[in-house]
Design brief:
mainly alpha; about 0% strand
Length: about 140
């Protein structure tokens, strides 16, 4: 099969999908989530946020590095390590915030689907953190 025949076949198959109303890759397609699917999405984003938080808690030590000696190189190394650690903490905080924002969007969709007032995912996140400290 030459290149033109191959392209014609693909165009024909794409046209068939678009005309059949199929949703897999067809323009104007749709998808749907069940209530439990949306709950899983919220939980997964909260799990990711929690992972970022746990990493951030552990990474705090990389911002207080002391040079191994009193010379210029040791001091330079410590400053570079501390700046790198700070950058890591900022990245982890950004990842946590992004994950919580995504969880909030999914929670809003769930609340709209259920016809209830919007829940603040920060309350859910803090409750999870409190449960871990009690254990």
């Amino acid at each position: 099969m030459d290149g033109q025949e191959y392209r014609d076949r693909i165009v024909g198959e794409l046209g068939d999908m678009a005309n059949s109303g199929g949703t897999q890759g067809a323009p104007g397609g749709s998808f749907a989530f069940t209530e439990s699917d949306i709950r899983k999405v919220v939980k997964n984003w909260l799990d990711i946020a929690e992972s970022y938080q746990n990493s951030r808690n552990k990474a705090h030590l990389v911002t207080v590095v002391e040079g191994p000696g009193l010379d210029f190189a040791s001091d330079s190394f410590a400053k570079a390590a501390n700046w790198s650690g700070l950058s890591l903490l900022l990245h982890l905080e950004y990842g946590k915030k992004y994950s919580l924002d995504q969880a909030q969007l999914a929670q809003n969709a769930l609340d709209d689907y259920l016809g209830v007032e919007h829940t603040n995912v920060m309350d859910l996140f803090k409750a999870r953190q409190d449960q871990e400290t009690e254990v």
